[in-house]
Structure formats: C-alpha cells, structure tokens
Amino acid sequence: MDMMQFQRQTTQLAMTQRMQESLRILQMSNADLGDYLAAQALENPCLEVRVPEGASVAPPLPSRGIQAAVDRDAFATVEGQPPSLLAHVEAQIDLAFFDPGDRRIALAFAEALEPSGWLGAPVAEVAAAAGVEEDEARVILERLQAFEPAGLFARSLAECLALQLADLGLLTWELRTMLDHLHLVAEGKLADLARRCDCEIEHVRENLALIRSLKPKPGEAFAQDRTPIQPPDVRVLRGEDGWEVELTRAQLPRITVAEAGSTGDAATDAWLTRAQSQARWLMRAVERRQATLLRTAACLVRHQSAFLEQGPRALKPLSMEEVALELELHPSTISRATATRLIETPRGLVPLRSFFSRSVASDGPAAPQSQDALMALVGEIVAREDRSRPLSDDAIVKQAKLMGAVLARRTVTKYREALGIPSSYDRKRAGAAA
C-alpha cells in the first residue's frame, strides 16, 4: 500500500478566552454579575463598580474601585436552589460539543426534554427542527445518552433503565430481554418471562429487584421549573403603542473606567494600560449582555403578546432556534440569555423561558399547537368539571375537540400527570370523601 501525504484546509471557529468570558457574563444573573465585577475591581485599579443596595457582593476588601452596600435584603439571604434539568444538560453540552453544528443539534434535543428526563419528541421531529438528517441526529443522541445522570434522553422506560444498567456495567442479555417485555411484569406473568429469559423464576425476581432499584425518571432529581426567588431582570408594561420591555436597571451594577494616568515607571504604566483595556472590555461585555437580554425579551414579548393578554391558553409554538434566526444569533446565545431570567408581567413574575413553547403536531384546524397551551387547556377543562362526576381522559379529549384542540388520549394522560391532576377515579373518591 502506497503512503501519500497531502494538506487539507478547513475553517473552524475557535473560541478565545474573552469570547468564553463574554458568554459566561451573558449567562450570569444580576447578583452573580455584581459579585463577579466586584471581584474584578479588587484586582483592577481602573475598574470602578457600584453595586446596588441590597445586592449580593463579594466580601468587602479595601479598594477604591468598589462602593459596596452594607445592608442586604431578603433576596440576598435566600438559599440557592438546585439547578434545573435544562441548565444541568446545557452545562454538559458546553463541555462535550465544540462543533457549532453538533451543538445546535444537541441543544435541539435538550429543548425536547421532558421534566422526567425522557425525550419528549421523536428523533425525526428534533432532526427536522435542527435542519439535519435523522441519522445525523441519532449520532448526537447517542452521545447525549452518555450524560449524567444515566437515563437522560431515553425514549421509553425500557431504554431509560437499560442506559442505567449499562452505566453500571450490569446490562446482561437476560436483563435486556426482561426490559423488552416489561408488559409481562405488569401482568404478573413471571413464568412467561422466565421462559423468555431461559432462567428460573427466582432469578427473574432477583433481576426485578435490581430493576426496581433504578430511577425511572432521572430528571426528577432537578428543580422542576420552580421560580427562583430573586428580582426580575426585565419587565413588560402596557404602553400607548403596545407592550414595552425594559431592563430593571435598579438591580444592575454600575461600571466606570478610571484613567490610567502616568506614574513615570514604564513597567507600571504598561500594566495600568492593560488594566484600563481590560476594564473597558468588561464594560462593553456588560453592555452587550444587556442589549442581548433586552432584544431577546422584546422578541419573545412580540411573538407571545397574546399570552400576556389572555394567559397560557394563548401561547404559540416558539423555539429558541426561531428566535435565534430572527435576531441573527446562535441558539446557544438565546439559551444563555434566557436561563434563570425572570420577567415582570401584568400576570405576575414568570421565567422568561415560559415564553418558549414546543410545537405539537396535529391534524386539527389549530395545527400546529403549543404544548403549554394544550396543557393549560387540560387544566381548565378539569377545573370546570362537575366534582361529583369527574371527566375521564376520553371525555377530556372530546371536550378539547369541541374547543378546537386535537389531543390523543395518551397525551391527555401525560399532561394531566404533569399538572399533578389525579385520575378521574381518584378525583371522584376525593370528592366523595370531602
């Protein structure tokens, strides 16, 4: 075999240290940004930071660049909450995917995650949303299924349990066969299951004990869309010409850059020049952060104005990719800009990400439909039912169809369970007991 040597030229985006730092600043909350800038001011004599009263600050140290508040309000003393499932997954995506195309597909899968940690959309649908072939999306999914905790991005209960057993190095042929026939376990047909696994019933019971020790919903270990107790980052108000979005600047640290001056020493003057350059870059990075957040919030409000006027039932399908395309930004930038952000609305304080809603395919007149809007519809139908005669899931399907929404029975069951609504049988028993 002849050996040949050749050159190939490729174009690849390399993230510089300042680009990475700029992305971190974008994702910081106002409190974290204040702490970060205060720490930077301790080391940079050209950077002056004024943290708003009541905001969290780094431990006070002598520095002419910091004017920290002494008092703290209630927000500063609240214990931090566990990270959300999406934030946990996105942090792993940042470490595992460097190619922009692969990251875009991975983020599309992350957006399709259910609170349980399972994948809530078919691979073909995620691939279509990311604009790639299904085979390419499957390759990315295999990498995502290696994330911690094991079981994330599973498409079924059997796959979720198989991923956890594989992670433990315990996925044998017998266990794989049992997972493929979990319906026999539910029906109590252990003898049939033993025959399929070519083993004794006692061995089946031992394997079942192992399976029951696993976590069928690994996503439940994370915060489930709990609203953080913190001041809002942006607010939306009704103006003369429609909805107006503005930043809550009272919570933002104020930055000024001091002149470096001249000390007469060349080395010191060079160091001060670099410090001044870094301070100016930080100021521009914070300004870009604010501009990106404001543009993103305004875009979301523009698309979901009906939500502000009518409530969750009026939510329209909207993805991060659509907003990124409109603003000419990367989807990961939109993800960082909206992570942990709160917006003050006439309907109360809500996460900015509640303006996103996954599209649900439908054959009805309202296709495509918003998943959150349909979930809210299920909740409204149950809230209006006769307590003495609770509606079954089939009855809810019929009620939804009369209101112009097309739902499958299994979808109603999934939404009802996600809303914490018991079955019609349990609701009837609860009504009788009351």
From TrEMBL:
Q: Name one GO biological process term.
A: DNA-templated transcription initiation
| One Pfam family in the UniProt entry | Sigma54_DBD
Q: What organism does the UniProt record list as the source?
A: Cereibacter azotoformans
Taxon lineage = Bacteria, Pseudomonadati, Pseudomonadota, Alphaproteobacteria, Rhodobacterales
Q: Where is the RNA polymerase sigma factor 54 DNA-binding domain?
A: 271-429
| Highest taxon, organism lineage | Bacteria
Record-level GO cellular component terms: DNA-directed RNA polymerase complex
Q: Which UniProt keywords apply?
A: DNA-binding, DNA-directed RNA polymerase, Nucleotidyltransferase, Sigma factor, Transcription, Transcription regulation, Transferase
Q: Does the record bear Transferase in its keywords?
A: yes
Q: Where is the RNA polymerase sigma factor 54 core-binding domain?
A: 78-258
Mind telling me which InterPro entries this protein's record contains? RNA_pol_sigma_54, RNA_pol_sigma_54_core-bd, RNA_pol_sigma_54_DNA-bd, RpoN_core-bd_sf
Name used for this protein in its record: RNA polymerase sigma-54 factor
Role this protein plays = Sigma factors are initiation factors that promote the attachment of RNA polymerase to specific initiation sites and are then released.
Q: Which family does it belong to?
A: Belongs to the sigma-54 factor family.
